[in-house]
Design brief:
With 259 residues, this protein is of the alpha/beta class. The protein is globular, with a radius of gyration of 18 Å.
Length: 259
């Protein structure tokens, strides 16, 4: 124990579950050193991934981050807020504006990326819990999360593993817990989707329509409260790695409540 926090140890259960705590980071048995998510060339660096976007796409990402921040409710009591896996830059962009009353849980399968996120967030004064492992393996109690932030986590997990994670998100959220997120609409970018599939053969193009995201949310007890178009790329340039020049992608913000 250091500074009142558990620094090293083990988490075990009679069911056979095990996770280690090393240097203040929870290490699940399925954690990996490098990320399995290969959409960007320099994803482990977190900040520099944005250097691979066009100016137009960065502007849309900023709109998405602002949408999520403005959708986070103020509260007089402490809340549990969860990010990840594969979260993008919203956490880093607005961390200095977050409530200091809350506890923020950050998960990612990559040990390297979790360490880098911790490095960036060390001096923010936030109460942070870092976990390296898959969303199925992190030691979180069911219905313990007040707010889940989907900063492309659902989309990036779909790209990496070929399935939605709304069932796991719904399981973690408390009754009336809030899901706030952003997603891309790739209906006008079929060649870009095929480019992504070169690195992620399991990427399910048939699940990319927004209607499929909505269907998975509803099937897992998540009541959609808002879906808002935030903007669309333009121009004849590459907006992000794997984007086919000339194909446009839209940014959508959404909120949902666990029934």
């Amino acid at each position: 124990i250091q500074n009142g926090q558990l620094h090293d140890g083990d988490i075990t259960c009679s069911c056979g579950y095990h996770a280690a705590i090393n240097d203040g980071i929870v290490l699940c048995d399925d954690c990996e050193e490098d990320t399995p998510f290969k959409w960007f060339n320099n994803v482990d660096s977190v900040y520099s991934a944005a250097d691979e976007y066009s100016g137009v796409y960065r502007m849309l990402l900023d709109k998405g981050s602002l949408y999520m921040y403005q959708s986070m409710p103020e509260s007089d009591y402490s809340q549990m807020v969860m990010f990840g896996p594969f979260t993008c830059n919203f956490l880093l962009r607005f961390c200095n504006d977050f409530s200091r009353k809350n506890t923020y849980v950050v998960i990612d399968p990559s040990v390297k990326r979790i360490k880098r996120l911790r490095e960036y967030l060390t001096d923010t004064g936030l109460q942070l819990v870092f976990m390296a492992g898959g969303i199925d393996q992190v030691p979180l109690r069911k219905q313990s999360i007040d707010i889940y932030i989907d900063d492309y986590s659902v989309t990036n997990s779909l790209c990496t593993y070929g399935s939605f994670i709304y069932d796991r998100i719904s399981g973690f959220l408390k009754s009336n817990g809030l899901l706030i997120g952003v997603m891309g609409d790739y209906k006008d970018a079929p060649k870009s989707v095929q480019n992504v599939k070169k690195d992620h053969p399991e990427y399910p193009a048939d699940k990319l329509p927004i209607s499929k995201f909505k269907g998975s949310m509803k099937a897992n007890g998540l009541d959609i409260r808002q879906v808002k178009l935030l903007g669309t790329t333009r121009g004849n340039e590459m907006h992000f790695p794997r984007n086919e020049v000339g194909e446009q992608v839209s940014m959508v913000g959404y909120t949902a409540v666990r029934k």
